Amino acid sequence: MTTLQRLLLASAMALGPVATGAHAADLVVGFTLDADTLDPANHRKRETETIIRNMYDGLLTRDANMVVVPEIAESMTQISPTVYDFKIRPGIKFHDGTAMTAEDVKFTLDRVTVENAMEGTTSPRQSLMGPVASVEVVGGDTVRITLKEPWPILPAMLPNQQIVSKAFVEANGSAGIATAENGTGPFKLVEWRKGESVILERFADYYGGASDIPPVGPACVDRVIFKIIPESASRVAALLAGDVHIINELPAFSIAQVNANNGTHVMTVNGTRSFFVAMNLEGEYFDDPLVRQAAAHAIDKNLLIDKILGGNAAPINGILSPDAFGASELPSYGYDPELAKKLLADAGFPNGIDIVMDTEGAFKDTAEAIASLLTKAGIRTTVAVGESAQLTAKWRVQGKAPKTGDMYFSSWGNGSLDPFDIFTPTHRTNDRGNSAGYANPAVDALLDAAATELDVAKRAGMYREAELLINADLPYLYLWVPQDIYGVSDRVTGWQPSADSRINLHDACLK
Amino acid sequence: MSLGKLIERLLQLVPVLLGVSLIVFVMMALTPGDPVQIMIGDQNITPEQEDALRRGLGLDRPIVERFFVFLGNAMQGDFGQSFYHRRPVADVIAERLPATIELSLVALIVALVTAIPLGVLAAIRKNSIFDKLATVGSLLGVSLPGFWFGILLIMLFAVQWHILPVSGRIGYSSEIETITGFLLIDTLLRGNLPAFWDAVKHLILPAVTLGLPMTAILMRVTRTSMLEVLRQDYVTFADAKGLSRRRVLFRHALKNALIPTVSVAAIETGSLLGGNMIVETVFGWPGLGRLVVESIFLRNYPLVQAAVLLYAVIYVGLNFFADILYTILNPRVKL
Questions:
Q1: d(CA A259, CA A264)
Q2: CA of A382, closest CA in chain B: separation in Å?
Q3: What ipTM does this complex have?
Q4: Cβ contact (<8 Å) for B96 and A43?
């Protein structure tokens, strides 16, 4: 051992073991991003909502299987295609001890939906509430939401809004509620160390949460700490070192390491993000359906899922996740590079074509694997890495500019698992996520009709019909829906990951 | 330096800051990427709702108008609201700045304390094994990327040996009562020694990672200038007078040899701010660097503009400080 090594070891020993000082029932989550704000109405990030959601409850919530159930509402009744009644559960308290009433619910929803309702500005979450016309209190304990037009996904979207205290917001203003909280959720805020950690403790007077999601009652652990660790390798290290008990966004290549480590394991849940390659239908080659079919036959989805994603993804043949409303079995374009070459030749390219595939840095490896498969089949593909915001500007032109580029490896999330939020934006003519530049009036008509159709079976049928149309037209190479992967300490019980990426810790215990 | 000179230097800051504001503003505007589209993410939205969001962020106005509004407000200390935090940018930056400064200063101290003795030793024992090792070491120090070296330290000291924490600035169980925002100072002022010790432990790995490239550079500078000084006539004269080697080295040679080291250190401190962006991400350090990188990707214009302006002020300030230091150390030089 050299002097330097000795010195290092000696100083390390002098420091002694890391004293966590943690209470036995402190559950620590190693989390990718800090909350932007604690105001439930004033943000646009899933990560922010995940943290807020442990302090605030909503009218409705979702269980781990994405089933929407009442939470603060006792029941929901649809009076007409555009009118919904929510009976508010009695006996719910805010963290400051005051009682929560239907007026607080109305105030919360007005704050989100009414233009300029937040001290002269409009909530960035307004669009998540769809075409709300008004919110009224009826008979003291019921809140009535009236829509301007039918919007069947209102119940699926309501878990995204958390109920605030009218008195608290009026007393402290938007600035006050941005850094302090007064929710009705299972945990209350102890301290927010910005950029570093959010420290919460159990709310003893919690009403128990959704009665459809047992166990009902106060939270199991004493404290919950969201520790912000943006770098995935450091997050994994924190789990292995025992500093944290749950980490999100575990990279697929770290699964074996976490499973092999004594005291930690991996948990997965079907995600809600569909991955695909958009082909520029206004471009030089992909305006020809034969070339698009050739590309589809060139890709071995199962091989990519197995080798790149460690088997943690479900293949798709249309835009919808297998778990989404209206998803159905669709014809598959099987892996057949020889057929791909023949189709290319039929399209007038017997010597193949040279194209560029755009993607973000995070997906470079996957894009290169796809490119090598395409290249083998005669579609010689070069991967070009760009920044997300730049690529969005290039590929989501919404018909306002001519579309450039050949291929774009990208994805679209669908937290509500309703086709309205993924099918329409990615496939409707000139819609905001239509990277392929796809335009089919029959699909547009089906998507528009399905958006307001209240008959569940009929609506599912419309999406099925639209899926079959796009499956034949093939504007995109539909690839897979990856699973969300978590690293979890063996000490954690009672918790399971949720498909919407929220980490609800009410039911989690530590042994 | 006279007061007139000082005022002259301060006035030179004005065109620099105006230029930086204009460049940042234009570059952000020219970079593709629409903050509103990024904010909406993957969602179905009506054009009316999208317009409302754009109006809310003030992005519906022409760019020239936005620039002058920004300039006018900035002169009054108002840098606008962060698109995402929905609070004044100045507040958001002020919360994160002390962590970055604290980390940078400790990294600087780590670099000075290790680089100067090593550089002097390398110079005295020129061409020895130690000198060669130091040369290789400094080459490695400059070449090792922070994200790799940082993770390596974490795997050894946190995962393998459990003696230092993986990330963060202080343990969540340590109480913090802010006075200055610098945890090492605040915990001492409050007499909270366990929390001070906790903060020190959290600082070690990020400070070493951040300070490593600077250590390497300063060591090379010290070695070179020490060698040069040792060749000077007055050193030979001192030796000839029969002064002890120690006295010659530390009293006569080192004092002059440190002049370039100190000025390089002052300027390199500015580059620590750049290194911070990576180190803060690896170690989950709640500083400004991480925030700025996140904000650039999200096209959070107000925050990026204010932060770059702040970086410019710090950088210019450090250069100014280096100039003053130089005149003090070397009275032959005048500003």
A1: 6
A2: 22
A3: 0.89
A4: no
